[in-house]
Amino acid sequence: MYWYIAFFIIYFGSMIGVAWYYFYKIKTYEDYMISSWSTGFWKITGTIISTNAGAAVFIGWVGLGFTVGMSGFFKFALVAYIASLTLVILFAKPLRRQQLFTLADLFTSRFGGKTGMIPSILSAFIYSVPTLGLQLIGMSTVFNITLGWNQTTGLLVGTVLILIFSILGGLPATIVTDAVQSILIILGLVILTITVVLHVGGLTELINTTSWEFLSPVSVDGLSDTLLYALSVGPFYLVWQSTWQRIFAAKDEKTALKAGITGHLIVMVISICPFIIGVSARQFVDLTMNQDLVFSYVTNELLPTPIAAVIFVALLAALMTGATSFNLQGASNLTRDMYQVMINPKATNKQLLLVSRLTVALITVLGTGAAFFITNINDAYRWALMVNGVLLVFPFLAIMFWSRVTKTGVITSMIASLIFILAYPFTGLPFDQALAGYVFSFVSLITVSLLTKHDATEVPKPAMKYKLEDFR
User: Each residue of 207-225: b (16+ CB within 10 Å) or e?
Assistant: First the structure.
């Protein structure tokens, strides 16, 4: 236990020290939320790695590998990073050119008025809150395994640490610590993967003693199940605001593109490690164990305490930076798209900075509340991805490519799709919820746009080719 205490004190002390340093450097809202659009290649690459390696990777994906095998990699991780790379390759330059803060800003730039309020609310409450809760669950699990704390104590301590770090340091502190922690995260995953595989006799022995259903890229329920699962998670990563924030924070379009590709290729490769750990764990872990506990159990059981402490610090690094990315994401939505647009359009930079920090606290507290109700990390995360993807992917693509899309079409599509996707499980219809949701979103967006005219506040230009603010 003393090793854990020592490592945790050093880690959290360093994190808070960095945040305190940036507290005195941050002078404007732009500094706090988007690092003043000035971040370089290695910092962007590092923060992409760290942000993508949160509770889902260390805990959720190890658990998924433990329960369904390697098909989890193909139907979740692989499609997530293919979608992320698609976003970066196709859209990093045109999005960076817009020089925005949030996804909702793009909607406001294209349609004017308060159109960005809907994606802002979605991003803040239906994505940021539950996913921040997942990070807190991960932190409480680590504290339980290493220090013996109960869940409530772990959640409260994690909340306090996240609040201190994110309120003080904002995105600049998150990006800097992410860049350093990305090395620790990669090292931790690789060490644990090698250790677990050697524990079961090596890779050849693992393959020989594992049934095909846990090695196959297709789940035991067939190809259609694998593809439909992928549909429920993959498209969301086109509209994941954490990636958008990194694109916006880059110092120029070239940096946004190169760093985005590099970071996501690295995490695509290392994301296979959690699934190998999960499959290997089936050889020696009680198969009735809660899947969200497998990572921490394996680490604590197989590694000497000093090495296990390094792994747990790597996990806490991923969870801390993931949590701060998510509360900053939600806070930027509430500050930029709700406070500045709806409440105080003439807000000064000082007011925006204050509201940013207050909304960071709000999102963090709500995330803590959500953590008490989450029973399965993968299921909760998948639901959040599906809902946000269904509502936002086609409106986003329309803004980028289709000048004929109208404000009425987008607003109607998002509201109707939200009602549809929430009500669908109660209809008893046999079609997959995600597939039905995407079809409904597409059809409603196209139909209503063709039946309505452009509003006077719109800029009917495709954002792929034009900087929309230039036409206002």
Answer: eeebeeebeeebbeeeeeb
Q: Are 240 and 396 in contact (CB under 8 A)?
A: no
**Cα–Cα nearest to 459, from 209, 111, 195, 212:** 111
Roughly what angle, to the nearest 10 degrees, separates helices 377-401 and 223-233? 70
Tokens linked to 222? 């067939």
User: Exposed, middle or buried, 427 (CB in 10 Å: 0-12/13-18/19+)?
Assistant: exposed
50-88 confidence digits (pLDDT tens): 777 765 677 788 999 999 999 999 999 999 999 999 999
pLDDT of residue 239: 92
Name the fold adopted by 2-376.
Sodium/glucose cotransporter (1.20.1730)
Assign residue 148 a region (left: φ > 0; alpha: ψ between -120 and 50; beta: otherwise).
Answer: left
Query: Minimal CA–CA distance to 172: which of 47, 284, 297, 327?
Result: 47
Q: 277-326 pLDDT, tens per residue?
A: 999 999 999 999 888 888 888 988 888 888 888 888 877 877 887 788 78
**442's tokens:** 């597409």
